[in-house]
Amino acid sequence: MPSETAPETGPPETGPPETGRMENALAAHRRAAGWTQQALADAAGVSRQTLIAVEAGRSVPSVALALRLAQALACPVEALFALTSGPETVDAVLGPPAGPGRAPVAGTRVVLGRVGGTLVAHPLGPQDPAASRISADGLLGAPRGPGLVAVELLRPRPAVETNLLLAGCAPALGLLAARLESLPGAGGGRVHWLDAGSDAALTHLLAGRVHAAGVHLVDPASGEYNLPELRCRLHGGAWDVHTVTRWEVGLLSAPGNPRGLRSVADLPAARGGVVAREPGSGAHRLMQTLLSAAGVPAKAVHFEAVPTLGHHAAARRVAEGRADACLAPRCYADAFGLDFVPVGEERFDLVVDAALASDPRWTRLLETLGSRAFRREVGSLAGHDPSSAATHLARLEVA
Predict the structure, then answer these.
(1) I want to staple 119 with a disulfide (CB 3.0 to 4.6 A). Which of 92, 134, 145, 252 is the partner?
(2) Shortest CA distance to 23 belongs to which of 67, 61, 69?
(3) In a domain, 34, yes or no
(4) What is the pLDDT of residue 399?
(5) What are the tens digits of pLDDT across the range 141-154?
């Protein structure tokens, strides 16, 4: 049978997953047999829309239709349809945990989203400060095979499959996700923010684990943000780049700035330690660039041996007296009552596969990103300038 290109899902259902429901493996058997939806619908004597509804679980087939489908696919009816009890489960690819810690275990809360043709589950790490405020889509279950895990759904399947997943370190992404409680035409689908450094966010995007990645990566040679890195890292088609915000970045230190820090040139005096950030993160890249420009060898600075993930965790180490300084946006100095020495301004951009440009979910996200209310809220964060939010910077065509 010819390969299928048309979308397979129709309007999603609403309401929580049911117990005592009919589950079906129709779509899996159809794909395994090489049938398109239209071809199978013709063989069973129904419309493609009817077949879509049956595959999505929105319509229970009649006995006659079930028999015709089983006959066409050369399998028992019981292989296609079965009554089950208890929570609905799905198979998903396991994304990396949000934040440091042990590997996720059964019962770990996860958020879900379908990226391309793959359903992805991202664990909500217990050390992620935002995780406790996120309503999970499901609970992690047992492994189901190479790279797959079972997930017990806590929300309707059509809703979680239409979630959008954003990875990045900007708190503005959390505010954006909170404003998009539900997406148009997504039956309850939401936007989830996964707190990750720039390199990790790009890695997730290129691996098909998220829909969009947020980055703030300076090019040491030109001083330009993001576009030089993206031209090097992206591959396989067209990508859109939109600005989210600009922010003031600087050195955070204890109240009163006891080490007398005035610039990165003074960091060798921070004998109590400077928070190290994970290689590839925007903060790590900027720190190395600033030290090089100031003529300070990185080995002259007493960086902590173990990198800290995220601006929030870095600022917390300084606030708790575990380190003398870190490099982070100004808003984290305000949040923890720390002194702030400005060293520059960064631009935080969001990169997404251009194929999403016409998706109503993405259209709604960009409308919210550029809205007056969102800009006013982000502008209330210390050192943030969202005046160019939603600006389309570039469409990068890469081989």
Answers:
(1) 92
(2) 61
(3) yes
(4) 80
(5) 988 878 889 999 99
